[in-house]
Amino acid sequence: MTRLRILGKASSINVRKVLWTCAEIGLDYRREDWGSGFASTRDPAFLVLNPNALVPVVEDDNGALWESNTICRYLAAEHGRTDLLPATPRARAEVECWMDWQATALNGAWRHGFMGLVRRDPAFADPAGIAASLRDWAAMWAILDGRLGTTGAHVAGAGFTLADVVLGLSWNRWLMTPVEARPAFPAIDAWYDRLGPRRGFHAHCGNGVP
Questions:
Q1: Which of 114, 161, 183, 201 has the lowest CB atom count within 10 Å?
Q2: Maximal C-alpha separation, the chain
Q3: How far apart, in Å, are the Cα atoms of 73 and each of 76, 77, 144?
Q4: Hey, which bits of the chain come out as E strands?
Q5: CA–CA dist 107, 170 (Å, integer)
Q6: What percentage of the chain carries pLDDT values higher than 90?
């Protein structure tokens, strides 16, 4: 089997999902810098692998694959890591539910605020839009805080799963965004502390990269 190839810069939150997953599984890989500031994802060779021109892309003996959450699920399943992604339909659905929530509801909430405050994109500079986005973002965190208050452990239940990988990185993004009036989310804080000893956390999540 050839070594896994990962295309995408290490600072990308979506690339870091894959890198953290690889660390949990113990996978060897070769990462190549693609994306803003590096090789262009508009390069024809990249577009053959992902026509959306986005990172990450992974390539192994089975071919190329894109979409970060899908990649994480694939790697866990391919390597038999049923602790990260359960094999039984209901338990797996609990993990995938929160992964999909991260990619849809949560990501939709933070976009305007993050782009305005961190990326300093002029298209997202209006204070009212930023304020609305931060309120929506905090409302999403209140949902997760309630969930973690119920489980008392991890997002999908007692054990660490891929849902914790993708949401741990999302929480890191929130922490590194300059939010003036940051609400308290004690259950999330306690959960994030529990993630600290995990393999790959300090390299790919708790390193202050938003």
A1: 183
A2: 52
A3: 5, 6, 21
A4: 4-7, 29-32, 57-60, 63-66
A5: 8
A6: 96
Q: Within 10 A of 136 (CB to CB), how many other CB atoms are there?
A: 17
Enter the pTM of the model: 0.96
Burial of 24-43, coded b for 16+ CB within 10 Å and e otherwise, reads bbebeeebeebbeeebebee
What pLDDT band is residue 208 in, cutting at 50, 70 and 90?
confident
Give the C-alpha separation, 170 to 8, whole Å. Answer: 18
Distance of alpha carbon 24 from alpha carbon 39, whole angstroms: 27
| AA identity, residue 63 | G
Look at residues 113, 96, 117, 109 and name the one whose alpha carbon lies nearest to residue 166: 96
Closest C-alpha among 65, 157, 178 to residue 191: 157
Question: Domains of the chain, with CATH numbers?
Answer: 4-78 (3.40.30.10), 89-204 (1.20.1050.10)
Per-residue pLDDT at 1: 54
For 178-197, what is each residue's pLDDT tens digit? 999 899 999 999 999 999 99
List 57's β-bridge partners, or say none. Answer: 7, 66
